[in-house]
Amino acid sequence: SENKPSFVLHRSCSHSVYSDCSEVFADGNVASGLYVIRPDGSPTALSVYCDMNNGGGWTVFQRRSDGKESFDRAWVEYKHGFGDIYSPKGEFWLGNEPLHYLTSQGKYDLRIDMEDFDGNERYAEYKNFRVDPEKGASCSHLCLRPYLFPSFHPSFPLSSPEFISLPLIILCHSGNLNGHYYNGPYRAMTDDGVVWYTWHGWWYSIKSVVMMVRAADLESPPTGPGKAAGSGLPQGL
Fold this sequence. Notes:
The protein is mainly β. It has helices at about 20-25, 75-80, 95-105, 195-200, and strands at about 5-10, 35, 45-50, 60-65, 80-85, 90-95, 110-115, 120-125, 130, 150, 160-165, 175, 185, 195, 205, 210-215. The strands form 4 sheets. Strands 1, 2, 3, 4, 5, 6, 7, 8, 10 and 16 form a 10-stranded mixed beta sheet that branches. Strands 9-11 form a two-stranded parallel ribbon. It has a two-stranded antiparallel ribbon with strand order 12-14.
């Protein structure tokens, strides 16, 4: 069964702070929820949502769920992040800069979970995902081959590196996961919905999206009683 999420902010009891959710998971924390991390090079610590399903250790950097949060934002907002990370269904973007520090620590996998308005679920996974620094960036958008799997299908590894340097989640002209939120089929001047073309085409805006990264070399935590999400120093929101 899937781990139930926790929405209490937890801090590490150890002297060192976790660098990502993969370290949180490897340390025996097996419940999904909010944790404090500090990636190498980051000037500040970050509150992040750690998803401990699907092998655990996923750091969530984008969530779309109900359209309450506008993703039509200025560059500086995408750089630093925006939205509501603290609510169970809150929509947010973690930030390009935090993503750069996070994915510069080593090799990371990207997972994208999606659901349509009929309750059908799909996911895609990619290898070697990274976010380039703003200065000297060589790509104007995230470009990923739109491989898609039913929720029960094993992941399909990709060997080529993928990267992002601007806030446009455009999947090689086959998707836009930061698009305008519509309720399924839509009509508009442009095909600007939350789209994954190979699943529902350009004119169907999907209901929910979660994008997350995980260290490629993550190992399962030690066997035995796992730590609950509240095993650190819980603080109210």
